[in-house]
Amino acid sequence: MNIGKISNEFLKNQIISKLTIKRKDVLLGPGIGRDCSILDFGEELCIISSDPITGASSQMGYIGVHICCNDIVTTGAEVVGVTLTILAPPDAQAAEIEQVVVDAERAARELDIDILGGHTEVTDAVSKMVLCLTAIGRVRKEKVVSFASAQAGDDIVVTKKAGMEGTAILAHDREDLLLRHFPEELVQSAKDFINHISVIKEGRIASSFGVHGMHDATEGGVLGAIWEISEAMGKGVEIDVRRIPVAAETRAICRFFNIDPLKLISSGCMVIVTPKGEKLVELLNANGIEAAVVGKVIDDSAKWLVTGEERAPLEPPDADQLYKALRFT
């Protein structure tokens, strides 16, 4: 099988199809395009999401806490904390494990949340460090955000820029290679993208504004995230790829590795469905967050990419482009 997230077809047919929701207090379970599970806790809902970190080597703990919390905020919820499981290979150094925790706590302080616990183990079952995180949040029932309210004609908004997380990971983990081909200033700027992978701020703004769904663009990139929201909505999409913002650093690094920036892991880039896209963009811009309307929800199941007069189907996400770049020699 390919490295990376399994295909959505396999996930749907071989995994999710084997699972059933048995408790009445589980309001939302696993599904394509769903970032979180939702539990009924009376007047409030408990929101839960899990993520692994397998592609990055540098600042794994920092990245992991942020991307896991990003999922929680897509529901309009407040994050309470995360659990952190560290699986380290036998050749790992004690200082490396300690650094994961230090980096995770740094992200937790930024977000004003707690590391709630977890597990730390050295095992020959892994050949490199693997992190698994679970984030927990809370939201009042009337405040929860769900794609169930999406309507044909809604705008699709993208925040920040595509491929930011992947660009930062490559700039950190393939720095020596990139410095042989690019100016130090470009590589350093790309590394700094790691400081912009949280979507907590735009998630809170969008929740207060009123939206019909939010999704953090992780593995599979922006196009993968858009495909997933289409599945979650049960509606089609029409996307103008020319409107999706991509940083110059990302374009340069992706050209070097011969990968597609729109299919590169993109934490920090949120996909939002709203009936008032331009007004939301104005509000986000006023709060220092770049955003753009990139397409619309349509009233069928088709998924289209539009470039001028040309139209092509949006294919289901494949293995993230990051893994191809990390194998590059």
Automatic annotation (TrEMBL):
<dbReference type="InterPro" id="IPR036676">
    <property type="entry name" value="PurM-like_C_sf"/>
</dbReference>
<dbReference type="InterPro" id="IPR011854">
    <property type="entry name" value="HypE"/>
</dbReference>
<dbReference type="InterPro" id="IPR016188">
    <property type="entry name" value="PurM-like_N"/>
</dbReference>
<dbReference type="GO" id="GO:0051604">
    <property type="term" value="P:protein maturation"/>
</dbReference>
<feature type="domain" description="PurM-like N-terminal">
    <location>
        <begin position="33"/>
        <end position="139"/>
    </location>
</feature>
<dbReference type="InterPro" id="IPR036921">
    <property type="entry name" value="PurM-like_N_sf"/>
</dbReference>
<dbReference type="Pfam" id="PF00586">
    <property type="entry name" value="AIRS"/>
</dbReference>
<dbReference type="InterPro" id="IPR010918">
    <property type="entry name" value="PurM-like_C_dom"/>
</dbReference>
<comment type="similarity">
    <text>Belongs to the HypE family.</text>
</comment>
<dbReference type="Pfam" id="PF02769">
    <property type="entry name" value="AIRS_C"/>
</dbReference>
<protein>
    <submittedName>
        <fullName>Hydrogenase maturation factor</fullName>
    </submittedName>
</protein>
<feature type="domain" description="PurM-like C-terminal">
    <location>
        <begin position="151"/>
        <end position="301"/>
    </location>
</feature>
